[in-house]
Amino acid sequence: MTNENVNTSRNETHTWLEPGAWRKPCIVHVTMVANSRQALFGKLTHNCSEAVIEKTPIGWALINQERRLLELCPEIKILADKVMPDHHHMVLQVQRTMPRSIRQVVRGYMQGCKEEARKLGFAENLYDAPPFYRVLTHKGQLHAMIEYVKTNTERAWQRRQNPDLFRMHRKTEVCGLLFTSMGNHFLLDWPERQLVEMSREASVEQIEERLQSVLAAAHNGAVTYAAAISKGEQKIARMVREKGFPLVVLLNEGFPKEGSPHERFFKPGGVYFEACSKGKLLMMEPDGSAFVNPVVMKATEETLQRKAEAKHYSYREIPVESQRYRFMALNEIGRLLVNR
User: Fold this and answer.
1) For the CA atoms of the chain, what is the radius of gyration?
2) How far is 187 from 191, CA to CA, in rounded Å?
């Protein structure tokens, strides 16, 4: 989602596998959403030590159907599962080629759940829409996804306890610019601020030197702003977060579009969720008007021209819609926020 993977959103439906590949060995994360997001499957609560889901009879029926799925499809292994009040997750591993596709298997599972719900007196459609699929294809994804599923309950409880930190604001105004934002907005009021900006061509030594100066300033109370575009910026932003210092992240297309079906349920993913729940994170995505703001455009053009001249290139204006312009503009917007 973002320049430094702020979101691991489950709202993305991945369909790039060839039809035959859905029957072959693979690992798929499936999310199934209850009809109208009703809390049909359980109730979120907290005991003395952890957040838990008190399952309804329908919620227990989902678990029972998982056992049925494994009996009918011995080629499948369930690596992780989690029943939430209004949705449930399964991470499925196809261990060997099956006669049916994983999509057909999931449809059969959902149909079984619907039948069990009808037996329990629920006459409406159990599910809101077709399931979301995410095929895991890269190293490290499996561990991250299993952790995501296992900790889903605790994250839901944290959101309930800190609703303001997870509320999306569409019209946050700073320096005359509009942003979509989420997180701890009090970070904007902190007087000590620093911007992380590193060239893509920065050496390991330069990145390390800048990292140490940023951490020192953060230790002394500065709030760090970063677009986290280059590898150096990403490393520094990551270390600031890991050390528990407050971080303002500038995003390029980091939030769902206004009015989209996923807007209501958006949340930061992965490690940024914890930072947000602790009030250590503010995510800000500039409105489209910010990129054509005269001050931003002038500063961005001057920076682009200066970089071209340093490399002895003949500078040519680039479209404001281009990714290069937007990434460069993010840092200029960050500079405005830090120097205000």
Assistant:
1) 23
2) 9
d(C-alpha 170, C-alpha 174), whole Å: 12
Closest CA to 90 of 33, 23, 36: 33
Contact 91, 79 (CB under 8 A): yes
- Side by side, the strands of the sheet bearing 76-83 are 76-83, 87-94, 26-33, 132-135
d(CA 250, CA 282): 9
3-state class of 58 per DSSP? helix
Q: Domain locations in the chain? A: 19-160, 164-339
Which pLDDT belongs to residue 77? 96
Following DSSP, what letter does each residue of 133-177 receive, concatenated? EEE--STTHHHHHHHHHHTHHHHHHHHHH-GGGG--EEEEEETTE
Q: Which stretches of the chain are DSSP H helices?
A: 57-72, 102-119, 141-150, 152-161, 204-219, 231-242, 271-277, 288-291, 294-310, 323-339
Location of structure tokens 């059969």: 108
**Hey, what CATH topology would domain 19-160 get?**
Alpha-Beta Plaits (3.30.70)
* Token output for 135: 């095929």
Q: What is the DSSP string of 310-332?
A: HTTPPP----TTSHHHHHHHHHH
Task: State the residue for tokens 């270390």.
Answer: 239
Structure tokens at 333: 């917007």
**CA pair distance 225, 68, nearest whole angstrom:** 50
Structure tokens at 220: 């002394």
CA distance between the termini of the chain: 28
Q: By the 8 A CB rule, do 229 and 222 touch?
A: no
**Low-confidence residues of the chain, pLDDT below 50?**
1-2, 5-16
Instruction: Say how far apart CA 160 and CA 154 lie, in whole Å.
Output: 10
From residue 223, give the alpha-carbon distance in Å to each of 217, 248, 303: 8, 7, 24
DSSP states along 249-271: EE-SS-SPPTT-TTGGG----TH
CATH of domain 164-339: 3.40.50
Q: pTM to 2 decimals?
A: 0.67
pLDDT at 5: 47
Nearest to residue 31, comparing CAs of 265, 278, 337? Answer: 265
